Amino acid sequence: MPGGSSWVPHVPWFPNRDFDPSQLKLPPYLANTRETRQALAAYYQSIGEADKMLGEVMQALNRTGEAGNTVFIFVADQGAQFPGAKWTVYDQGIRVPLLVRWPGKTSKGAISNALVSLVDLTPTLIDIAGGSEIKELDGHSFKNVLLGKAATHHPYIFAETSMEPHFWYNYTPSRTVITADGFQYIKNYHPGLRFITHIDQVERNEFYFDSWVQKAATDPTTKFLLNRYSYRPPEELFNLNNDRVSFKNLATNTTYQNKLKELSALLKKELQRQGETETMIEEGTLPQFFDKSYTVQQNGSAMDLF
Fold first, then answer.
1. For 251-260, what is the mean pLDDT?
2. Cα separation, 282 vs 190, whole angstroms
3. Which of 38, 40, 128, 196 has its CA 20 to 30 A from that of 14?
4. How crowded is the C-beta side of 51, counted as CA atoms within 13 Å?
5. What is the 3-state composition of the chain as percent helix, strand, coil, each rounded to the nearest 5?
6. What is the pLDDT of residue 294?
7. What is the mean pLDDT of the chain?
8. What backbone torsions phi and psi does residue 174 show, to the nearest 5 degrees?
9. Is 122 in the same domain as 222?
10. 156 - beta bridge partners?
11. pLDDT per position as a tens digit, 141-196
12. Does residue 294 belong to any structural domain of this protein?
């Protein structure tokens, strides 16, 4: 099964040519500044370039004469590199496109609401190829979803993040479960610690973060978005059915305390299944040197790594 990958639309983004930034409809989780609009236009331009590359791959497949005998899968690994998306476990960070063309098997234009995860890809490919199930794998084949024989898949999925690699010492781990009924529970293990990525520190391709900081001084909406990106509470609970942008944290809402307990217990059960303890999560597996830590144990040096 041949495969390929592309860094587009990863940063650095392509220079904008096709979009008027002032006319773009901003996603609610982005601050409305001129710089943000310019960045979003560049991101959309890069998506267009990625689409062209995908078309070239599909045309190359057609030229081989094997298009009718090939399962074509397009998937991304994470959300866009904007605050509140990439490097987070919010919906904007972990909901990714999954497009499948399987001639004679999948229906053109069909859409499924089945809850699947990237860990399901390998089992699915094995299943499609006629291989036997490997029970040790975390994921499960969603071939029957593709064939239209199943409308559901997982009752819940698990996701995690710990840091942005450029700032490994800014260790801010989060673990989450998302259920098929549309609820998401997030546990943040270093609540209150400022979340830092190179979006706000070193990213200079279509840099816009300073405009957020400046506008937040006078605009309540931008202040909310900036604080939402930079600081996390101990627990978060969202009803994604009516709050896809994850703005309304229900964790302290008395109406949802049973749901909070239910999903907290579900996350704990999943972590136990994986063999990950809270101590392991809180301390991490980061290099133990210098003073760039919070609860990560230190007292070593870089040379100890070799």
1. 98
2. 7
3. 196
4. 7
5. 35, 10, 55
6. 41
7. 90
8. -135, 145
9. no
10. 179
11. 999 999 999 999 999 999 999 877 666 667 899 999 999 999 999 999 999 888 88
12. no
